[in-house]
Amino acid sequence: MTESPALNGSPIRTRATVIENRADGGGGFCLTLAVSGWPGALPGQFVMLSAGPRTAVERWDPLLPRPMAIYRGHQPGSAGESTEIQVLYKATGAGTRLLAEALPGQLVRVVGPLGVGFPSPSSGQRVCLVGGGTGTASLYEWAVRCARKQPVSVLLGARRAQELIGLEDFEALDVDLRCATEDGSLGTAGRVTALLEPLLADVKPEEMSLYVCGPTPMMRACSERASRAGIRCIVSLENNMACGFGVCLGCAVPLTEGGFSLVCKAGPIYDAREVDWAGLP
Ligand SMILES: Cc1cc2nc3c(=O)[nH]c(=O)nc-3n(C[C@H](O)[C@H](O)[C@H](O)COP(=O)(O)OP(=O)(O)OC[C@H]3O[C@@H](n4cnc5c(N)ncnc54)[C@H](O)[C@@H]3O)c2cc1C
Ligand code: FES
Fold first, then answer.
1. Alpha carbon distance 126, 208 (integer Å)
2. Is any atom of ligand 1 closer than 6 Å to the C-beta of 68?
3. pLDDT in tens, 213-272
4. pTM of the model
5. Domain that holds residue 44
6. Would residue 178 count as lying in a domain?
7. Does 6 fall in a domain?
8. Cβ distance 65 to 49 under 8 Å?
9. CA 124 / ligand 1 centre spacing (Å)
10. Does 161 share its domain with 75?
11. What's the gap in Å between 21 CA and the centre of ligand 2?
12. Hey, CA dihedral for 68, 113, 110, 106, is it positive or negative?
């Protein structure tokens, strides 16, 4: 497994108060939660969120929480005060549609931070971040931190312009930002790999680290291209999860060396060469 810096705080299990749950018009939502006792998080870590708000009557349907990247709020909170953390998500299935109904003042169960953070690039390397769909959310804080130290290219892809979540936040960063949309409504028409190929062709292997988060076919395609170019590629997997902390075995991913790894504990961050892509759906 890839190395990652030590985490300051242990995960907490708590009920967080919804501060805001704003729709962005493209089916995406930005949820801001006030969390007491927040220990802070590393870029790349995630939380498990209960699917719907807790109202006067405790509801357990759907039973399983949903994993969500921490978009903002990586600093630990001060003692006795609550910290605001943000999650960007898309209402795609039953759980996230319920989450989209959460109103300010309601309570949402939170467990986290979970998983490991992104490993650092070598000093002086160009960093290239590739985000597809909601995978973009996992990369934002990492882009912020990398951009303080080295040149960063951010390649974002989605089906259409409205689905490029977090775009305004990336535009505000000092990074080389390029977008691709499949319908051509913003940036290059086509897939995000069309933006990646010329970048990979232009660097020596030791000059770049690539970080990718998005749908599995996109991560597989980026991993293949990076492998051909000899460039280190780190992926953040978005497998379905049921518990989030290594108990249910529901998130296991096959490894090239044989056996399986639990994405919620050993991941979600992996060196792309560790993952047996042929064994993933
Ligand atoms: C580390 C990580 C970070 C993520 N970050 C984000 C993010 O920032 N924003 C975002 O929009 N999405 C993110 N996702 C994806 C997000 O978790 C899914 O889109 C979400 O779980 C879908 O939930 P749903 O209720 O809408 O869909 P549904 O299809 O209704 O439910 C999916 C959920 O059902 C359960 N489930 C389904 N099949 C099984 C099964 N076979 N066994 C056990 N349980 C099952 C699981 O709990 C699964 O998570 C992330 C995923 C991971 C792993
Ligand atoms: S989600 Fe349960 S073991 Fe990983």
1. 5
2. yes
3. 999 999 999 999 999 999 999 999 998 999 999 999 999 999 999 999 999 999 999 999
4. 0.93
5. 12-114
6. yes
7. no
8. yes
9. 36
10. no
11. 27
12. negative
